[in-house]
């Protein structure tokens, strides 16, 4: 892409992203914007001004070298200084002020986009800092969508039902991925974040992986078989959490005496059996995998299934190839506010035959969030490095709430194993028996 095309692309991405942020914050009234809908989340008005604050810090001040617009609010919107539960007590900008602030910042950013050389300095090469800010806002759009899911009251967001695949019933339950090395991570994707880098060779043994994520119907069989009452299926930490939090079903499910219902952005509806299960924790995913005699995939296995093309030996950008995600490939970008039914998006299929690796639900892996060999923090330690360690599990693939700009075959998400307000699901894997390999 030439420099002028790159500038036009950045401008489009910034504008498109802001339209989504506006939908998420204009669809509720001011009282709703400043309220805390769950101690796990910030008030929506915090997310909005925080997006502007990060954009001011990185683009206006650092890349643009311009004077600060609102240095007085830096501290309020520093995610490391105030826990989410404490944010409503801060003297935050009100809804009108927050909208005006993000608009002022954005005007300055469009000015500087026209005159900033997009090369010669690592922060601006390939428009990296702009891409980082687009992804940051998109990540907050997904967080704000999770806040909408936690909010009580009538529906305010609209969506249409996702597509269904004609061949869903004939798909195999699992596909075999042959052992060998593949290239994991990336050194070339211009907007990849530090934790996705660098590209490096990894050996993975033969494994089977589920063709699609585990569905609500599958998960209800685990529940009906006493899955929540059998400690032997759970890890020690998982069982302790299951008891403490009194878990008995995915979050947002309730039983009406006859059947399971779910609350989805204000709609209460029967749980659809053929959709991937969502709003489950790592511990629940692991207990299910034990129940069915499988395990969660490692992060390495997940990425090999998603990217390795055995015909060429190359790692693809996405399961379907190197082209950017389109609506025919994956359920991304908040077009559909639910996962697509099992087997959807045949055009998004990976070379191994697995589907729905990108979009629909974030997939828990069994792997702790750790740096790749050769990792170096960029542009700041707080993006990834401070989170590395055994406290966080890696999730892969993005959800229906994730924007294409914030999701690649190499993209890594991480969270605590107890979390389930996020759009999290899973698929299982297993090691083949010798007679299966032939
Ligand atoms: Fe943030």
Automatic annotation (TrEMBL):
Encoding gene, per UniProt annotation: egtB
Keywords: Iron, Metal-binding, Monooxygenase, Oxidoreductase
Amino-acid positions noted as binding gamma-L-glutamyl-L-cysteine in the UniProt annotation, renumbered to this chain: 84-87, 415, 419
Function as written in the Swiss-Prot or TrEMBL entry: Catalyzes the oxidative sulfurization of hercynine (N-alpha,N-alpha,N-alpha-trimethyl-L-histidine) into hercynyl-gamma-L-glutamyl-L-cysteine sulfoxide, a step in the biosynthesis pathway of ergothioneine.
HAMAP family: EgtB
Leading EC class: oxidoreductase
Residue ranges of every copy of the Sulfatase-modifying factor enzyme-like domain listed in the record: 171-430
The protein's name in its UniProt record: Hercynine oxygenase
Keyword Manganese annotated: no
Superkingdom to which the source organism belongs: Bacteria
């Amino acid at each position: 892409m030439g420099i002028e095309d790159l500038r036009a692309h950045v401008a489009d991405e910034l504008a498109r992203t802001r339209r989504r942020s506006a939908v998420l914050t204009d669809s509720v009234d001011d009282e709703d914007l400043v309220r805390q809908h769950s101690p796990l989340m910030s008030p929506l008005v915090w997310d909005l001004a925080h997006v502007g604050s990060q954009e001011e810090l990185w683009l206006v001040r650092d890349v643009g070298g311009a004077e600060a617009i609102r240095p007085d609010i830096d501290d309020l919107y520093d995610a490391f200084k105030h826990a989410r539960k404490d944010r409503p007590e801060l003297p935050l900008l009100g809804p009108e002020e927050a909208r005006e602030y993000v608009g002022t910042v954005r005007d300055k950013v469009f000015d500087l986009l026209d005159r900033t050389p997009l090369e010669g300095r690592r922060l601006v090469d390939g428009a990296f800092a702009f891409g980082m800010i687009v992804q940051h806002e998109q990540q907050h759009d997904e967080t704000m969508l999770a806040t909408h899911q936690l909010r009580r009251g009538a529906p305010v967001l609209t969506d249409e039902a996702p597509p269904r695949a004609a061949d869903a019933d004939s798909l195999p339950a699992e596909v075999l991925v042959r052992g060998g090395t593949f290239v994991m991570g990336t050194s070339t994707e211009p907007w990849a974040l530090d934790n996705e880098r660098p590209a490096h060779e990894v050996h993975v043994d033969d494994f089977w992986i589920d063709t699609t994520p585990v569905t609500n119907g599958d998960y209800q069989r685990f529940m009906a078989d006493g899955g929540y009452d059998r400690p032997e299926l759970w890890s020690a930490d998982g069982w302790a959490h299951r008891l403490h939090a009194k878990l008995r079903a995915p979050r947002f499910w309730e039983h009406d005496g006859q059947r399971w219902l779910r609350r989805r952005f204000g709609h209460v509806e029967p749980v659809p059996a053929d959709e991937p299960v969502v709003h489950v924790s790592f511990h629940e995913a692991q207990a299910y995998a034990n129940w069915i005699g499988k395990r969660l995939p490692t992060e390495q296995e997940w990425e090999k299934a998603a990217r390795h093309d055995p015909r060429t030996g190359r790692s693809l950008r996405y399961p379907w190839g190197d082209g950017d995600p389109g609506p025919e490939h994956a359920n991304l970008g908040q077009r559909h506010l639910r996962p697509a039914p099992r087997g959807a998006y045949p055009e998004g299929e990976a070379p191994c035959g697995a589907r729905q690796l990108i979009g629909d639900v974030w997939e828990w892996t069994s792997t702790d969030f750790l740096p790749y060999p050769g990792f170096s923090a960029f542009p700041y330690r707080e993006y990834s490095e401070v989170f590395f360690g055994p406290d966080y599990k890696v999730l892969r693939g993005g959800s229906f709430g994730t924007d294409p700009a914030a999701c690649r075959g190499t993209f890594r998400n991480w969270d605590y194993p107890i979390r389930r307000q996020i759009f999290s699901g899973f698929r299982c894997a297993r090691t083949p028996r010798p007679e299966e390999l032939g």
